[in-house]
Write the structure tokens for this entry.
Amino acid sequence: MTVTAAEETPVPGLDPVASARWIRRSVPVSPWLHEEVGARMADRLQWFREPPRSWLHWEPVHGGVQTHRRLRERLPAAPCWVASERPQDAQRATAEAPPATWNPLRRRAPVVPPVWQPGQGVGMVWANMLLHAVPRPAALIRQWHSAIDVGGFLMFSCHGPDSLQELRAVYGRLGWPAPAHAFTDMHDWGDMLVHAGFAEPVMDMERLVLTYSSGDALLNELRGLGRNLASARATATRGRAWRARLVQALESGLPRQPDGRLTLTMEIVYGHAFKPQPRVPVATSSRVGLDDMRAMLRGTRR
């Protein structure tokens, strides 16, 4: 599943080693924010005239196990695959309980989704709250494009540039390194989709305002949602005195709601795009890949 693109410049300010370590970590439970975003993204499936005939869930534990189950309920007839840096964890977390039966001789093992292999085509790739943490996102988007059948589509979500804006302001006033790398704007995601070969990209965003009773509560939740992947972050281990100073800075520097709760903004970017029929470039002589030729011939027959 690893994407390699040595010629592509990584996202500025994002540490690729920290990113790989974060994505490959063992996750005991999916972050609640990812589940919430996944539920909102699943509601957008009603926008499509035809549901996908098959689909691929990219990093399902990271994106949301409950979201995976919700999608299986919405797409009961569509075969599903999973793709993950920890495929066994992904299969174990997304396994479905077999039908209940009173007869012990007819009990079946849980239904485990197969691991996707490059070259397998699917009707939809689903990637929730992942792309902002990938050091070479354009390469991953191209891999998604190659995995989708002609006429299929991609659905994804990620953090937008206004996420953690209040936290960034506190760090900036104190002269500290940023608490996270700079997140990509939704218009740039749209450009990457088109460059990768997708058509009709639709991008939109929403801001979620989270509130917390204390700086401690905020830090505890942020630790479950992600890590600071900025290459300029402090690398030394911090002690209790540092945490106490950070909590004090948050409680004195973050804006508050009328009821006194601390405020933190999360900007969520949503995107979807279709894989169109491949086109032969107009030239005196043109070369067309075998897979593209087959796709064009299927489209002509329809």
About this structure: The domain at 16-99+109-161+181-207+268-301 is CATH 3.40.50.150 (Rossmann fold).
